[in-house]
Amino acid sequence: MAFRAPPLNGFYCRRNPMVFFRAFASVVSPPSKAVVYERHGPPDEVTRVIDLPPVELKEHDICVKMLAAPINPSDINRIEGVYPVRPPVPAIGGYEGVGEIQALGSAVRGLSLGDWVIPSPPSFGTWQTYIVKEESVWHKIDKDVPMEFSATVTVNPLTALRMLEDFVKLVPGDAIVQNGATSIVGQCIIQLARIRGIRSINIIRDRVGSEEAKEKLKGLGADEVFTESQLEVKNVKDLLGVLPEPALGFNCVGGNPASLVLKFLRQGGTMVTYGGMAKKPITVSTSSFIFKDLALRGFWLQKLMSTENAKDCRVMIDYLLSLVCDGSFKYELEMVPFKDFNVALDRALGKLGSHPKQVIKF
Amino acid sequence: MAFRAPPLNGFYCRRNPMVFFRAFASVVSPPSKAVVYERHGPPDEVTRVIDLPPVELKEHDICVKMLAAPINPSDINRIEGVYPVRPPVPAIGGYEGVGEIQALGSAVRGLSLGDWVIPSPPSFGTWQTYIVKEESVWHKIDKDVPMEFSATVTVNPLTALRMLEDFVKLVPGDAIVQNGATSIVGQCIIQLARIRGIRSINIIRDRVGSEEAKEKLKGLGADEVFTESQLEVKNVKDLLGVLPEPALGFNCVGGNPASLVLKFLRQGGTMVTYGGMAKKPITVSTSSFIFKDLALRGFWLQKLMSTENAKDCRVMIDYLLSLVCDGSFKYELEMVPFKDFNVALDRALGKLGSHPKQVIKF
After folding, report:
1. Which of A220, A258, A226 is nearest to A243 (CA)?
2. Quick check: B294 contacting A, CB < 8 Å?
3. Which domain does B203 fall in, by range?
4. pTM over cut 0.80
5. Who among B282, B287, B297 is closest to A295 (CB)?
6. Percent of chain B residues topping a pLDDT of 70
7. What ipTM does this complex have?
8. Which residue out of B12, B37, B83, B331 is catalytically annotated?
9. SS3 state of residue B335
10. Within a domain: residue A323?
């Protein structure tokens, strides 16, 4: 199947071919280079970079010149076709990113040329050089924040913040426990907990370099970091020392590491699952529910974004970017020029060893 | 270890030996026959019936002549020593029951001789002929209700009612799903749902007589009853017909029957675990939490009774007994004279084939 370009107002529009004749009086975007896929499959096989023709701006539209956009695991899953919600193919890759306003429709009032904006809620198709979307899609952000953080603030840091806020009311001195603590969400949770005076108990895989990983997480503010093998003890709570039993746990692995989070939780505690890196289910004893009164929940940012709770997200994003700005919040990213998209993709797919999250720089 | 009788005010009191001298001016209970166990172990080995000496009533005490008390599975687990909260041994068996007021302390104002009462919250030691406890322990109930229902209203029917009320707000036309539907809690859920206009989807074991069990549950108001083997299909929801996807599920089995409850639940649904008859854990996929947004919780009546939510329970018990009285709520019980306690216990232990719940009649 050939790639069908989006409706191109001003040049050719399936909805209204007459638009062509109005083109000369309208604002039109530059042509865009985009990473597209026409069918689902291995991303390094099904994606290619193509040129898309210019798009006419309707009166409330904004044309954004993209500056940077990350390759998140969920982007890969969407291209593979295994993510439950995904755009119909053919589609342009990407779900978040940052750009600069290049052109405005005639009725746009709230934003100006040169503003830096992110799509919020995030939306499909950020892997392209120019995007035309309605004003309401775009959220203006502070240009002082390095673009790689603005480009990545939604999918990982916002997940961390919402998970800390939405499930259990924590107060300074409380503790949380998490597995997969070296992930970006994990690093964000450690730092956001530290900023709130909340202690963090962190579980990481046993692997070469786990001692360095521990030190790195402690440098971010982790109170305790255990490898899974350190937790093969009769009662993990004996390892807590002065830390309180955690009321809230986060699981992005599944299998035994999820059980380890459950073991740490206090009576009445909640575990929130937001990922399944081990591709293994979560197994829970009956008595954990009845006598320990544990609650198991799930978190999915994309679902949240479709609810009315989404309205707080822009405020939260501003807060997160202000933390980046004042130096109290960070995570590792690697910028790659758009021309080397294939290299960035191979790194994101794990084909080239261990790399930080890849951020395409347009 | 010998059985130590409880402190016997009026005859010998370890707390205050001087009480002896006041005995002749005081109200004293009759001697009591009680089922006691001095150590944990198999109930048919460690329990015996003994005589306990009379007890002096303090001014706020009430002496209740027990009429009936059931043998619940949790009573058996307490005697076995496997229940997480249990009285220290030596102890008297039982946790709920009904009795008639036989004598009153001098300061009792709210209850009268001849009233029928239940301990509410329930409390340990109902397997005896006379109980002396403070007025506040006792809740007066309607004498028109057959005693076997008053004796058993708390542990099973109240569990069913609270589970229907406490987790998900249901409205008429909604549906629930449950496994272990032939249990007394299961039967109560079916009937309480029917009374509320809530549809019930019920899962039972494959066994000889499962067709009769289906008919019996449908007679109570079950909308659908499936055996586990009927649910070995690609999509259980195809079996729902006109019923809506359930927002709330109940699990008292664990293992695969718990997974069947999860499969029926709608997006955002909640499964409440209140038992583990299969002695197998509950296994849940990561995507059930993230993409289906399921929540897993637990229910334990004994815990609830220690919270401030317990205060509504007496109102709920009156409601449940009124339903029994008007004939819209029932379940099978078998009354056994106290002198045949050992037979009742053997039946409750499953040693004598299938029997309804055993209720000791004093």
Report:
1. A226
2. yes
3. 156-302
4. yes
5. B297
6. 93
7. 0.88
8. B83
9. strand
10. no
